[in-house]
Every structure is written in structure tokens, then in C-alpha cells.
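hey so u asked for the seq, here:
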Amino acid sequence: MEEKILPMKIDLSKDGISMIFKDYQQLILECLWKLNKPTGTRELWDYVNKNLPKGQTISRAAVIFFANDMVDLGILDWDDETGKGGHHRKYYPILSEDEILERLRKTIDVKFGTLE
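ran it, C-alpha cells below
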């Protein structure tokens, strides 16, 4: 499978994955890496809202949109689980933090290689 180009904005004033992900997005990935098992958006949403700085919250929809975007980029994958209310996606990481940063490096190399 060909790796997808990461269509992301980079903030070079930050370090690591903070350069490309917002605080709540980093917390979603952190939770998935920590749990190391397929996890639903309710649990991810709870984790993020408990760990964001005081007074900050995000919607569950933001968790769902981010997780689905990460699936499209090949950073996360999901299993289908049935339960009350129908089918639910349980997300799990495909890439570690180091692997995400390596993909970012490759993307930058490809893009800079197209400059004349």
C-alpha cells in the first residue's frame, strides 16, 4: 500500500507531533497509544475532556471527525462493533508517534524535491 501524503499544516515553533496536531488531537492519539486496544469515541471524548486544560472542552463530533480523518490517512484503523444503537467504530493506531513523524519527513522530502 502506498503511503499517503500528509496534508497538514506545520507549526515549526513547536516540537514533535505538536507541530502538526492540536492539543485535543494529540490527546486522542495518546489515549489510543496508551490503551493499545480498539477504543470507541465515547471513551476517547471522555479522556480528552478530562485532560485538556481547565475550561477547555471539545465535542464528540470533533473526536469522530479527527479519528475518521486519521483512518483516511492510514494513521488509525477501526473495527466494527455492534451494540445498542447499531454499529460502532472502535479505533486503534496503525502508526506510532515516531512513524507519524517519519511519514511527515518523507512528505516534506517529496514536496521539497518538487521545488525548482
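The mean pLDDT is 90. The chain has one domain: 18-113.
lmk if thats what u needed
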